[in-house]
Structure formats: structure tokens, C-alpha cells
Amino acid sequence: MSAEIIALQKTLLSKGDTEVEAGSSSLIVGTVSDLEPISSPGDFFREFWVECKKLWVLAAPAIFTTLSRYSIGAVTQAFAGHLGNIELAAVSIANTVIAGFTMGIALGMGSALETLCGQAYGAGRLDMMGVYLQRSWAIVNTTGFILSPLYIFAKPLLRLIGQKPEIADAAGTFALWILPQLFAYTMIFPVVKFLQAQRKMMFMAVVAAVALGLHTLFSWVLMFKLKLGLVGAAVTLNVSWWFIVASLLVYIFSGACGQTWSGFSWMAFKNLWSFVKLSVASAIMLWSVRNLTAQSS
């Protein structure tokens, strides 16, 4: 599988994007000696500390961002537990079986962008990053439309796999209400890869923290004060995720990303099939892990 992915990357880059590949090669050659010579344990620990600081500057905001985003679903599930056992089971099944299954596929379909944007950024072909982002949007959103029947027909599907009728009905209703969340996923996955390649982690961390705080507050208000129950939980989930999407899009479109975003382009539809094949290979690997979780539930 890995050999096939590498071949697809080369094919994709060779069709109009050869400068990216050439630039990447020269970049690698030029950065071989970025470490000072290591001739003693003291030199090793000095360089180790330098590299650790570089790593954590990027990793710490990324960890916080991921933790905050996953906490959004955890907060909803925790509040659902206060509504009752049926509601807790409904949210758990909808998030694990329906949303988890589709998110694994959508995340995989957007994973090709991580490699291609990294290559383009390293090679100095910043203009291609925006094109790759748009290609990924086209593919991942199309995938979202294909997967949307899983949300729409969640009730009969859950009954078919053996869930209790009352839990299947509640989970199916909740899944239908969180359908907009699916398309928030399909928008945000490519955006995250696009910004990560540029090391723009701090803004994503701030947005995720604000979204988590607002999500917690409005979940409490809608679910308990306004007594909207699972519908309130679903509405809050949708709004929270689309708040993240809207904030990141405003950040990109405002010019904060410089040359990496120069507007929408018809080039996004060029070499689309090669991009699809690379994305499918990634999706199969990531989906298999999500599928094990769905089956065990």
C-alpha cells in the first residue's frame, strides 16, 4: 500500500506540479547539516534540547487543539448522561457508529493534503497549497454527500444491526439532527492540514479553546434551561463545529496565509483523479481502524 501511495504522489506531482518535487529534493539536500556536530554526550543533550524546543513549539498547540475538539463531543456525551440512560446511549452510538464511521472515511480522504501541502510549502511553491486545499474540499465534500444517507437512515440501520428499538430511534433522531456536523468535518479536515503545513498552529488552538468554552455554556443552556434535550445537544454540536470552520475560513480568506491562498481557481479541478486515488489509499487505512470501533460498539 505504501509503495502505491508513493507512486500516486509522484504521478500527481508530475502532472503540472513538477516544480514542487524538484524543490523538495533541493530543500532536503540543503538541510542535511542543520545539526551541529555531535562528538560527546554533552553535544547530544544540547542538540536534543534544541530539537525538543522546536518540536514542542508546534506540538503543544496541536495537542491542545486536538484535545479541545475531542472534548466538544465528550461534553455533549457527559451532558446527555444527565438526561437519562437512553439519551446517553443514543449520543454514544450516534457519535461512535454513525459519526465515527463517516469521520474515519472523511479524514482519510483529506489525508493526501498533508503530504502534498508539506511538499509544496517546503519547495516554496506556496501558490499550489491553495489549489491543493480546493481539490481536497471538492473530494471530501463529495464524500460527505455520499455518506449522508447513513445519517438520514440511521434508525433502520441501527435496528438492522441489532440495537434496541428505543435506543435506535433516539440515536437515529440525534444522528439526523447532527447531519450538518458531517459537512463541518468535511470542510475542517482539509483546512487543518493546510494550516498545519504552514505551522499556523496557535490560531487553531485559540479557536478550539473558544469553541469548547462556548459549546459547554450553550449545551447547558439548550439542554437543561430550555429543556431541548437531545435536539439542543445536536444544535449546539452543529453550531460549535461550524463556528470553528467559519473562524478558520475567515482567517484564511483575510490574507493571513499570504501567498498560500490567492483565491479560488479552476486549477483545483486539474489532475483530480490522481488526487482521488491518493486520498482513497489513505482513507482505507484510516477507515479500517474506525470500523473496528464501530463493530465493537
Automatic annotation (TrEMBL):
<feature type="transmembrane region" description="Helical">
    <location>
        <begin position="272"/>
        <end position="289"/>
    </location>
</feature>
<dbReference type="GO" id="GO:0016020">
    <property type="term" value="C:membrane"/>
</dbReference>
<keyword id="KW-1133">Transmembrane helix</keyword>
<feature type="transmembrane region" description="Helical">
    <location>
        <begin position="202"/>
        <end position="222"/>
    </location>
</feature>
<protein>
    <submittedName>
        <fullName>Uncharacterized protein</fullName>
    </submittedName>
</protein>
<feature type="transmembrane region" description="Helical">
    <location>
        <begin position="228"/>
        <end position="252"/>
    </location>
</feature>
<feature type="transmembrane region" description="Helical">
    <location>
        <begin position="92"/>
        <end position="116"/>
    </location>
</feature>
<dbReference type="GO" id="GO:0015297">
    <property type="term" value="F:antiporter activity"/>
</dbReference>
<dbReference type="GO" id="GO:0042910">
    <property type="term" value="F:xenobiotic transmembrane transporter activity"/>
</dbReference>
<feature type="transmembrane region" description="Helical">
    <location>
        <begin position="137"/>
        <end position="154"/>
    </location>
</feature>
<dbReference type="Pfam" id="PF01554">
    <property type="entry name" value="MatE"/>
</dbReference>
<feature type="transmembrane region" description="Helical">
    <location>
        <begin position="55"/>
        <end position="72"/>
    </location>
</feature>
<keyword id="KW-0812">Transmembrane</keyword>
<comment type="similarity">
    <text>Belongs to the multi antimicrobial extrusion (MATE) (TC 2.A.66.1) family.</text>
</comment>
<keyword id="KW-0472">Membrane</keyword>
<dbReference type="InterPro" id="IPR002528">
    <property type="entry name" value="MATE_fam"/>
</dbReference>
<feature type="transmembrane region" description="Helical">
    <location>
        <begin position="174"/>
        <end position="195"/>
    </location>
</feature>
